[in-house]
Amino acid sequence: MTTLAPSTRVVDGRAGRRARNRRRLGWLADHSVAVVLSLMFLAPFVFIFLQAFMTSDQALTSELWPQTWHPENFVEVFQKAPMGTYLRNTLMYAGLATVFMLLSSIPAAYALARLQFRGRRIAFVVVLMMMMLPPQVTQVPIYVMWTRLHMTGSLWPLILPNLLGDAFSIFLLRQFFLTIPREYADAARVDGCSEWGVLLRVIVPMAKPGIAATAMFMFFFCWNDFYGPLLYTSENPANWTISLGLASFRNLYQVQWNLTMAATLLAMLPVLVVFFFAQKVFVEGITLTGVKG
Amino acid sequence: MTTATLERGAGATAPARAGRTSRRWRRRLVVLSFLAPWLLGTLIFFVYPLIDTLYLSFTRYDLLSQPVWVGFHNYVFMFTKDQQLRQAAFNTLWLTVILVPARMLFALAVATLMVRLKSGVGIFRTVFYLPALVPPVAGVLAFVFLFNPATGPVNQVLGALGLPEPLWFNDPNLSKPSLVLLGMWGIGDIMIIFLAGLLDVPREQYEAAALDGVNPWQRFRYVTLPNVSPVLMFAAITGIIAALQYFTEAVVAASVASGQATTGGGNANILGYPEGSTLTYAQWLYVMGFKNFYLGYASALAVIMFVVSLSFTLVLLRRGGELLGSEEATS
Fold this sequence. Notes:
The complex is a heterodimer. By secondary structure, chain A is mainly α. Chain A has two domains: 1-46; 82-289, MetI-like (MetI-like fold, Orthogonal Bundle). Chain A has helices at residues 4-10, 13-52, 56-59, 72-80, 83-114, 120-132, 139-148, 156-159, 167-178, 182-190, 195-206, 208-224, 227-233, 242-252, 257-277, 279-289. In chain A, α2 packs across α15 (257-277), α4 (72-80) crosses α15 and α6 packs across α9. The longest helix of chain A is centred in the first third of the chain and has 40 residues, at 13-52. Residues 1-10 of chain A have low confidence and may be disordered. By secondary structure, chain B is mostly helical. Chain B has one domain (83-330): MetI-like (MetI-like fold, Orthogonal Bundle). Helices cover 74% and strands 1% of the residues of chain B. Chain B contains 15 helices and two strands. In chain B, β1 and β2 (68-69) form a beta hairpin. The longest helix of chain B has 43 residues, at 14-56. At the A-B interface, α2, α5, α6, α7 and α11 of A face α2, α4, α5, α6 and α9 of B.
């Protein structure tokens, strides 16, 4: 823009005006398309929101705007279904999985990013392959294993493996660690820091945003996970998570859409709220999951 | 790595060697202390299950009695007799061929638009990204509600405009396209990756192209595309592998649209509702293995899934030199 400005001024008046008009028109066109697209992206949220406040009678009609607003629908959701239990289970699953993942994956990611050892390249390729592997491929033996340990029916089969590293988190953390200049670690080593000291005193404090992003991805993955809890706890409703409860909500507890949409909104809310507060960290994390080094 | 070899080559005097060997062992122990949990995890949750899956795929196994060797029986059944598998494989292929390109093209278009916008980029980016965060189950519920034939807002709008009001998730011909619409709503993650790729294209190349007087299509074809092709390939391959395991959206859409619960046992009525049109490969594996406990057969299905996903992963690892190259570049 700025580089173009002087040159257009030099050109004779009419052509310059035409170019300026065209640019203005282009701006208008781009922004109109963007606004229309935004409305389409937001429309589902708006309709869910409106539906969630309707009475059950109105929910049976095809009206889109609530005649009267009923925030008590959100309370009723908790009375109709054991949402409190689902919430507790989900928080336990997501919370413990995230903490366990951090304990095991941060050191592994640091080793892959910064330690010199034979087989490092192969180790990284294995991480990538584990990351890309569909969970269904290895599901049968793993399921059999948890059955032998009498843990099917609970969420532990989904939580405990994180103590032994999570491939996607290792990959992501490694990408973050690579962005920290080597000099900081080298300086600490000169001062007599061990490798664990370097990791805990230098790398971890500097990589806090990256670690936060990785933790959030893990937490949200668990929060959203449907396949895992379905596989292990579908026969045991006491251990259901929000996703499982929500999937069965309309069929087990409610026929009308209003309460179902209220429950849907409740399930979305935490993720959306956290995103609004941590948007920058999030976007940076997603960008690093792409091919960028 | 290079420093290590240099060091070894440079000073090899006899008294120093003993100390160096013990130091090298200490060093290995340090590395091991960082990697031990992950190594153990790789053995327990990756190497062993892969081998065991291959073995079990040649057996009949129901978890109660010992696996019985049946040779290629599972594979023969899979390829010749299993009608529902044929349908499931077709649906998964359909999703791979339609859903993945649809999402990529749409995300690329939106990202291109974002680059052109000169103001309000932050807000637009948030809006376009937001749906990608919605839990899949919540997203499906929302869409089944929005598109429900009787009272859903979409058909209300279509009706008001005098357009036909389709059955969407209740129509076997439209259930998969409806899922594609849901997928396109959630393009946020790849859109952000594309956006970063587009912003990384060197400005000078655009300026050089402008001096050559190229038209917008040529600029896209010869400047933008070569620069973002690694990102596109990454998105394509991860997208294909995700499509292979497409499960949650299909299962929940079928259950909610049919009005019957997913969770209570393998309910045959809703499997792939309507008319098997949403039954996917991953879902069939789940039903056969963990509802009917034909674990040998499920293992055979898993082996096929492994072969397909591995071949795509290898393409990514080979062609995507950037992934590994970045390691050398930065370290």
